[in-house]
Structure prediction request, 484 residues.
Amino acid sequence: MEKYLNLLYNLFIVDDRYMLLVNGLIFTLGVTFAAAVIGILLGMLLSIMMIADLRPFKSIKSQKLAFLRNFNPVPKIALVYITVIRGTPTVVQLFILAYVIFVGSLADTPVFVTASLAFGLNSAAYVAEIIRAGIQGLDKGQMEAARALGMSYKLSMRVVVIPQAVKKIMPALVSEFIVLLKETSVVSMIGGVDLTFGAKSIASVTYRAAEPWIVVALIYLALTTIFTYFMRKIEKRLRESD
Amino acid sequence: MIKISNLHKSFGDLHVLKGIDLQVNQGDIIAIIGPSGSGKSTLLHCINKLEEPTEGHIFIDNEDIMSTECNINAVRQKVGMVFQHFNLFPHKKVIENITLAPTLVKKVPMLNAVETAEKLLKKVGLEEKAGVYPNKLSGGQKQRIAIARALAMEPEVILFDEPTSALDPEMIKEVLDVMKDLAKEGMTMLIVTHEMGFARNVANRLLFMDGGKIIEDTDPKTFFENPKSERAKEFLDKVLNK
Prediction:
C-alpha cells in the first residue's frame, strides 16, 4: 500500500506534475466554455435563418419568372452550413481550420482561439437543429392563440413560443454540451495543452500510463456528472407547469 | 359588423372555400354546421386572418382586412377566438393567461388587468383557479378559461371553433352554459359546432355549409324542421340518427 502511495506521489506530485492536469483542466474548460458561447450564439442565428421566410422576389409580376416568387434563400444557406458541418468529422474540421485556414499571417493564432472557434462552429450546427426542432415542434395552436389575441409575430415568439421551446430543448442542449466537453479532448492533436495532453506528458515522463489516464477519465466523468446534476435540477424547476 | 364577399381559400390544389358571402350583424349568434371538410373552421380562421384568404374581401367594422394597409393585430383585438384544443399557454398561470394580452397589447395597467381577470374568472365560475397552471385543469375548465382569456380583450365578436369537440361528454354542458350567458348579454358570436341542441336553442341564425359553400342561411327552427336542400336533409339524418 505504502509502495503504491509512493508511486502515486512520484507520478503526480514530484516536479509538480499535477499542474499539467490542472492547467489542462483549465484549458479544456476554457475551450468548452468559449465554444459553447459561440455555438449558442451562432446556433441561434442559424435556427432563425432556418425558419426565416424572406422572399426577395415575391412581388414579381411576370408569369415567366413566377417560380421565383417562392424563392426563399436564407434557410438554404443555413442548411448548407449545417449539412457540411454535420457531414464531416470534428477532427477534420479542426485540422482544416488549424492547417488550411489559420496559416500565413494567421499562423500565430493561439491554439486556444483556433480550437474554440473550430468546436464553436461545429457545435453551432447541432445547436441550430436542436433550437429549430424545439420551435417548430411546439403545438402550432400556441402561436395561433397568441396571434388571435392581437399579439404581433415578434411578441408571440418572445412571450409564448420561445419560453416554451427553451424548456423543451434544455435536455438536448445539455447533452450537446457534454458531447462538446468530451470532443475537445482531441485538441492536443493541433497542439492544445488540455487534460489529455497532461496525461500524455505525465505518461511519457514517468513511463506509467494507467494512473494518468484513469485520473483524466475520472475528471471528465466528474465534470459531466456535475453538469448533468445541475441541469436535472433546473429542468425539474422548469417542469413545474407541465 | 363583418361583411364577407366572394371569399375563396385554397391550400395548394385543395379548394376549401368556394365563394363565401356573409353579413354578420351586431348581436348575431350564428351557428355554423356541416360535414367535416366543408370549410367551417377555415372560414373562421379566415375572418381573423389566421389563414390568409386566397381571394375575396372581408370587412370588419368597414375595414378591409385584405388590404395591405390593414393592421391585422389591431383588428384581432376586436375579434376574439376560442379554439377546439383550448390553446392555453401552459407556461403561464391561469390569471397570467388572461392578463397577458391586455397588458402587453392594449397596455392596460397590470392592476386593472388583474381586476378584470378576476371578474371574468368569477363569471366562468373558476375564481379559485387563478393561481394554478393549466395542466391542473380539466378540459371543460380549460375551455372556460380560454373564453375568459378571449373576453379580457373586450372583443366585439368571438369566433368559436368547435369549442366542445375535444371535451369529455360530461364537461360539454359547463362550457355551453358559459356561452349561453354570453349570448344573453348580446355578444356577437360565430360558432362552429356539432352540438345540434345548442345550435337550435341558442343561435338566432344557422349556416349550413357543404363543399366550401354556404348552402343554407336561415333561422335554426326552420332549418331543423324544414331543411330546404337535399344535402342538409342527408346531414340531419346522419347527425340526428333518424
User: Anything to note?
Assistant: Residues 31 and 119 of chain A are 8 Å apart (CA to CA). The radius of gyration of chain A is 23 Å.
